[in-house]
């Protein structure tokens, strides 16, 4: 009997999306703004069930350092599968885990690596953030923690307390340097200096009501917060302030690590050595993996601390070790710095012709374009509707980008580190075209006035 022909791609595509909308949680985020059904992917390119091809400049929110299905990652996974090795081992030692840890330590800043310990926390960055907070609390015997406005450290209960809109008793939110929306109205080095003085005053003033905290957590570049790089001088001040007061400093490198910002770890731009580094996303080579690496003096040895039944993911460790080695051996962080600077320069050139572009910023291949309502003040208010329109226009042109920042008005570009020169030009051409189209549509709506 002859098999019936497969359903038309558009039917499959639309049916899957419809079933997702009726079966899955309303908490979906990316699926709402990116209604595609990926069925195949390689490098920068995704093919959808509808037959369309897309250039993926979101890269799993930075997870895919080498893009989709890179050969070295696939080979590492196949090797483990073909070996008959166990895939789930809790926290038992294995050759795969040993190889991953060895490669991870080879990438760390030498001064940090000499006294480092690693803890496997679970599948997600938010698990690692929770483990880091638990670690410094246990080591110091204190409870309060310092974080920063605009921060995003995950979605677990503990991590949410130190994300920008979270709340917890003892959680203190400090000003993060942000040139365009400087809390002190100055921007630049002066803004960073005032932010540092604010922190010092809060910690040293006996009348501030702030007790000695268990730690400080910061992102060297706030990614979800709008791609805001911390000034190197400010980061050095934070390291000095915390070291002088015996406050452990936690660097959240979940999105910034593994070459993304133009150095292997983003803290290397400033030369600081944190007490704890939180790592996830790209370290699993596209599979879920999260660890913290920290100074040995913080190691309490308390059994079961932030234990997870899935912390021994052997496939993720194998894929991660292959990714770390490939990025290190092929100097892809240097490549990200060079190509990222070139892309930033072209995008900054766009700003001169588009008043809705308030600022283009970033480091390496972590780039943000902040969109605003230009006639409404200085700094102008964010324009999330325009950002969403740009994202949609990009999708219409086969380009996947993300959103973040204040009211999700920052378009984020996080292409894989394997991006070629030709691909970067194609990405920017499509983005420029999408920006112009979204701007024209917004202008037409404004000129036509409110609909009746």
Automatic annotation (TrEMBL):
The keyword Transferase applies. GO terms for molecular function: diaminobutyrate-2-oxoglutarate transaminase activity; pyridoxal phosphate binding. Residues 15-24 have a biased composition (Basic and acidic residues). Its cofactor is pyridoxal 5'-phosphate. It holds the Pfam family Aminotran_3. Its EC number is 2.6.1.76. Pathway: Amine and polyamine biosynthesis; ectoine biosynthesis; L-ectoine from L-aspartate 4-semialdehyde: step 1/3. Keywords: Aminotransferase, Pyridoxal phosphate, Transferase. InterPro entries: Aminotrans_3, Dat, PyrdxlP-dep_Trfase, PyrdxlP-dep_Trfase_major, PyrdxlP-dep_Trfase_small. Residues 1-24 are annotated as: Disordered. SUPFAM superfamilies: PLP-dependent transferases (SSF53383). It comes from the Bacteria. Belongs to the class-III pyridoxal-phosphate-dependent aminotransferase family. NCBIfam families: dat (TIGR00709). PANTHER family: DIAMINOBUTYRATE--2-OXOGLUTARATE AMINOTRANSFERASE. This is Diaminobutyrate--2-oxoglutarate transaminase. It comes from Streptomyces corynorhini.
């Amino acid at each position: 009997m002859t098999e019936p022909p497969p359903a038309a791609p558009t039917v499959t595509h639309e049916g899957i999306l419809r079933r997702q909308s009726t079966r899955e949680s309303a908490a979906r985020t990316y699926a709402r703004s990116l209604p595609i059904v990926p069925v195949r992917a390689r490098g920068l390119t995704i093919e959808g069930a509808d037959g369309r091809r897309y250039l993926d400049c979101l890269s799993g929110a930075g997870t895919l350092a080498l893009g989709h299905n890179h050969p070295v990652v696939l080979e590492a996974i196949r090797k483990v599968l073909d070996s008959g090795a166990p895939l789930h081992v809790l926290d038992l030692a294995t050759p795969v885990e040993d190889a991953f840890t060895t490669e991870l330590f080879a990438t760390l800043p030498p001064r940090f690596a000499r006294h480092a310990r690693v803890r496997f926390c679970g599948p997600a960055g938010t698990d690692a953030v929770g483990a880091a907070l638990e670690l410094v609390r246990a080591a110091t015997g204190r409870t309060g923690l310092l974080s920063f406005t605009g921060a995003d450290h995950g979605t677990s209960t503990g991590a949410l307390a130190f994300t920008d809109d979270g709340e917890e008793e003892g959680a203190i939110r400090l000003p993060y340097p942000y040139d365009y929306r400087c809390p002190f109205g100055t921007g630049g080095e002066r803004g960073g200096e005032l932010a540092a003085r604010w922190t010092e005053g809060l910690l040293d003033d006996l009348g501030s009501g702030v007790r000695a905290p268990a730690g400080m957590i910061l992102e060297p570049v706030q990614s979800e917060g709008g791609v805001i790089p911390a000034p190197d001088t400010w980061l050095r001040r934070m390291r000095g302030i915390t070291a002088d007061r015996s406050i452990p400093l936690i660097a959240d490198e979940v999105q910034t690590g593994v070459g993304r910002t133009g150095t292997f770890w983003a803290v290397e731009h400033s030369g600081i050595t944190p007490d704890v580094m939180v790592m996830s996303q790209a370290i699993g080579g596209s599979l879920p993996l999260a660890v913290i690496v920290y100074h040995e003096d913080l190691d309490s040895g308390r059994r079961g601390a932030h234990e997870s039944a899935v912390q021994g993911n052997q496939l993720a460790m194998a894929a991660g070790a292959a990714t770390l080695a490939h990025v290190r051996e092929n100097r892809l962080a240097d490549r990200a710095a060079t190509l990222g600077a070139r892309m930033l320069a072209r995008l900054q050139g766009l700003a001169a012709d588009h008043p809705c572009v308030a600022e283009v910023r970033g480091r390496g291949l972590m780039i943000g374009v902040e969109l605003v309502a230009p006639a409404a003040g200085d700094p102008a208010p964010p324009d999330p509707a325009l950002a969403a329109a740009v994202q949609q226009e990009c999708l219409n042109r086969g380009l996947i980008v993300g959103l973040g920042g204040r009211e999700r008005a920052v378009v984020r570009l996080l292409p894989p580190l394997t991006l070629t020169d030709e691909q970067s030009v194609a990405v920017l051409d499509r983005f420029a075209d999408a920006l112009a189209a979204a701007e024209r549509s917004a202008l037409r709506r404004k000129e036509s006035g409110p609909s009746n």
